[in-house]
Structures are given as structure tokens and as C-alpha cells.
Amino acid sequence: xxxxxxRLERWEGRLERLAGAVPYALLALATLVTVxxxxxxxxxxxxxxxxLAALAAGWMLxxxxxxxxxxxxxxxxxxxxxxxxxxxxIAALNTRSIWFATFFVFVxxxxxxxxxxxxxxxxxxxATAAVSVPHYLGGPPDPARPGTLxxxxxxxxxxTSMVGLFSxxxxxxxxxxAERRRMVARLEELLHENAGLQAQLLVAAREAGVLDERQRxxxxxxxxxxxxxxxxxxxxQAAERAADGPxxxxxxxxxxxxxxxxxxxxxLAEARRTVDAVRPGPLRAARLPDALTHVAADWSRxxxxxxxxxxxxxxxxxxxxxxxxxxxxxxxxxxNVAKHADATRVGVTLSYMxxxxxxxxxxxxxxxxxxxxxxxxxxxxxSMRQRAERLGGTFTIExxxxxxxxxxxxxxxxxxxxxxxxxxxxxxxxxx
Length: 432
Fold this sequence. Notes:
Layout: H1 3-36, H2 45-59, H3 62-68, H4 77-94, H5 98-115, H6 119-137, H7 146-244, H8 250-278, H9 281-285, H10 288-303, E1 307-312, H11 320-341, E2 346-352, E3 356-363, H12 378-390, E4 394-399, E5 405-412
Parallel strand pairs: 1-2
Antiparallel strand pairs: 2-3, 3-5, 4-5
């Protein structure tokens, strides 16, 4: 329950206790004023007034006694009997002084509405008004004067209607308040369920990521190292034939050896690039903005292309899976720039928003027709898209020939759902 609801519950508890004390306070006030105002002048004097007041106070303990016996509250015939007895006591006290008709009469209205139901509520309110109104009008209606009877009935009807109206408004307000509390409680349950679903999603993403990265590594090895090794073997075989065959030409086999060395160096550089692109070391050693800056700086040193990193919003720790996804997308986007863009400048923007973490990578390179991806670029774009969408995020790319390329990815800003000790080991992180 949120803090505001806690304060509301405390206030409701105080009001409930106050409502239980108000009837006795009104009875005590009416009794005190009656005695001070000459209540002893009524038949029987002050002792009778005090005795009736004590009897009324004891009678009002009936609902409390019912609750102590395990009942939720008075209801049904016991409630009708309780209200009927209360109305009789109000009528008797009204004969002692008008102060009881002024103060204590409200208890009859309150308890009639609280303990009765349906039409019995209006009957209890009307009966209470009926025994009290004559004291406002100076006496009971005179049958010989129809006007007084009409006035009496009109006043009783107005009081009954007003009490019913305000009581219904109070019930509707209380019902709305209870409904809001139920909605808040349900919302909190949904939030907890959502957190659990997010955790399950991350577990599934982690498992799927391991397979995805294995497949990617297989393709990277096939497209780089395997091709380089094949070329090296081909050049070495050609050099062997040139050296051992008739009319061996040293220039020819040296040329083939030189080609093999160049292919080996290119393969080694590509292997280093591949390993660097999938290693999560920077993210384990620093926060995401710092890790992204480190990756961009390393990429600039290798590619010779300046890369500027900009961070907007207030950086904050997020779930490792969300941070890893963004870092991987950035690495893949930069790798594509180095391979295909022939760019002179790259801008990387990391944006922390209320519920999203966004990454934008823009270059001023050659660009391409997005409807017909250039050869070799399709797998990388698919990988980035799958990474983002696996966490419920988005991935878009904008490019035109000669106008550069802009890659944008967003993922939910999922807060850490576990302590740092729960961070998955390196071999369980996609790309580790």
C-alpha cells in the first residue's frame, strides 16, 4: 500500500473511533445542558433525566456487545429492535428537555441508517423525526387545525429526505473510496506480476541469447577466420607448387607466401575484432555510459574514424540484460560502420528516459538503400533487431545512398530486479 493510502487508513480509523464516541458525547452534552437549564423542573426532576440518559447510554452498547460476540454488526430483526428501543428512549428524553431533541436526536438518524437496511432505514429516520419535530413546533399537531398537521408532516418528510440524501451521498463516497483502494491494491498486484514476468522474460532472453550468440559466432568464424584459413592454404599450396615444379620461379612462390602472410594478418585482425565485439568486459568493469565511451574510443583507434559519445538524461543502473543489449547493438552498429560506411565521423547518443533506454548511432558515410541491404550487412541488422525486440524494445534504421546511416534502438528501462550477486556469470550473458 502506498504512503498516501496508509495515511488515509489511519484517518479512517480515527474517524471510526470518533463516530463511536459522538453518540455518547451528544447524550452527555444534552444531559448536561438540560440539568444546568433546569431539567429538574420536568416530572421526576434531574434524577429521572439522569436515569433515562444512563439507560440510553447502556442501550447504545448493544451494537458493541454484538460485535464482541463475533458478529460483524447488528442486522435483521435485532437491528430493528435496537433502533425501535432507541427511538422510544429519544422520545422519552425529548419530554425532559428540547436539548435532547436538538442534540441527541441525531443519534437516531445515524443509527437508523447504519444498522437498518432498505426501507427500514427511512422508517427509522422518519420515526426519529416524528418524535422530535413536535418539540421544534411547540407541541404536537392539533387535529382541529389541518395546517399544523400538514406542517408537521412536511417537516418530518423534509428531515427524512435530507437525512436519506446525505447518507446516500456518504455511502457512495465510501464505496468509491473502497473501490479506489481495491484498484490500487490490484494495481500493485499487477506491478508485482509484471516484475515477475519481466524477470521471466529476461531469463528467456538470456537462454535465447546464448543460442543466438553461438550461431552468430559460428557465422563470424565462417565468414572471417574460415575464409582466411582457406585462402592461406590455397596460397601456400600455390607457393609449394611454384617452388617444387619445373622451372621454379622464386618471385612467384615469394608472391604466394606474401599473399598468405597478408591473409593471416587480415584474419588475425578480423579475429581480434570479432572477439572484441562480443566480449562484455567493458560493461562488467564500468557503468554503461563509461563502457560505451570505452568501446567507442577503442573502435576509433582501430578504425581511425572519430566517434563522439553523448549521454542525455540522468544515468542510472538498469538490469544487466538491458545494458548488455544496448552495448551489443552499439558494438554491432560501429562494426558495420567500419566495414561498409567509409565514414569520416560517427555520433553515438545514449538517452535515459522515464521508461526507456535509447541508443542512436549516426555516421556520415556512404549509406545504402534500406530496401536492399548491402551484402554482408543483413545478418548484423537482423542481430541488432532481434536483441532489441527480445526485450520488448524497438529497432529502426534510416539510410540513403550518400546520406549516411542512422541506427536507433530502444529497450525498456528495466530497473535491477536483484542484487549484484544475482548478475549472470559471463558464460550466461548473451555474447559472453
